[in-house]
Write a structure and sequence with these properties.
Bound molecules: nicotinamide-adenine-dinucleotide, zinc ion
Structural class: alpha/beta
Number of strands: 9
Largest sheet: 6 strands, parallel
Radius of gyration: 18 Å
Strand order of the largest sheet: 3-2-1-7-8-9
Shape: globular
Order of helices and strands: EHHHHHEHEEEEHEHEEH
Length: about 230
């Protein structure tokens, strides 16, 4: 095996204390998705949306990467082939665990994007209408660098290329309802790529996987990484 493609979702950060997207009530941290995760919601009430992400950012800053994040960093470092890590998460726990190449297909909470010049800048504390874009100097044009519903995810070409070249596809802690990521397992299966799902629960996309590791990410991911690295060590 030469190439592993990993897709992570909110479930990998759950044991670090960051809530997953959809509670059983269909809300994100008590908010309707269309209010806090859509361009229309931002247009209607920017102050509320800025403040929602300011709170998310503070919670992410307080969270600590868990054993699953660390195991994936170890895999990237020690696996003799290629490891592609694509995440739907907006947190930076993969990076803080030591992963060096993380593809954030839904953007990053710790970054802002300028609506005027499109420049992406770091934003690790609070963002609101008073911030100035460090690239073009305009005040009030920065928005959270998050891909909202109705917007096109980032890096799709690179992702498609890496996925279709892989020998193994592993999805960790994702519910498989947000497209296009939800379609990756089916795409991998169509290309004859072996697929593994790591999740304590079954999901909409479970039928597309060859193997299911049922349990929390902090248990199942380190054990799976140990198995891969011992099988490839000489
Ligand atoms: P989701 O909330 O829809 O699904 C979470 C999945 O994780 C579920 O299938 C659940 O069974 C599983 N899970 C719960 N606890 C787990 C554990 N301990 N170990 C492993 N799996 C566990 O999440 P999703 O599929 O990633 O939804 C996509 C959207 O959520 C993305 O757009 C993303 O931006 C957003 N989001 C990100 C974060 C974050 O950055 N941490 C948090 C909330 C939402
Ligand atoms: Zn700008």
């Amino acid at each position: 095996m030469k190439s592993i493609f990993i897709l992570t979702g909110a479930g990998i950060s759950a044991e670090s204390g960051i809530q997953t997207f959809r509670g059983s009530d269909g809300l994100w941290e008590g908010h309707r998705l269309e209010d806090v995760a859509s361009p229309g919601g931002f247009h209607r009430d920017p102050t509320m949306v800025y403040s929602f992400y300011n709170v998310r950012r503070a919670k992410i800053r307080d969270a600590i990467p868990n054993a699953a994040h660390s195991a994936l960093a170890r895999l990237e470092r020690d696996f003799p082939g290629t490891v592609t890590l694509v995440t739907q998460n907006i947190d930076d726990l993969h990076e803080r665990a030591g992963s060096r190449q993380v593809v954030h297909m839904h953007g990053e909470a710790m970054k802002a994007r300028c609506l005027k010049c499109q420049a992406i800048s770091l934003c690790e504390t609070t963002l609101d209408e008073t911030n100035r874009c460090p690239a073009c100097g305009t005040v009030g044009t920065l928005r959270p660098h998050i891909v909202w519903f109705g917007e096109i995810p980032l890096f799709l070409e690179e992702i498609d290329h890496a996925l279709t070249q892989a020998d193994l596809f592993v999805a960790i802690g994702t519910s498989g309802v947000v497209y296009p990521a939800a379609g990756f397992a089916e795409l991998a299966a169509r290309h004859g790529i072996r697929t593994i799902e790591i999740n304590p629960a079954s999901t909409e996309i479970s039928p597309h996987f060859d193997e299911h590791l049922r349990g929390p990410a902090t248990e199942k991911v380190p054990a799976w990484v140990d198995g891969i690295l011992s099988a490839t060590s000489v």
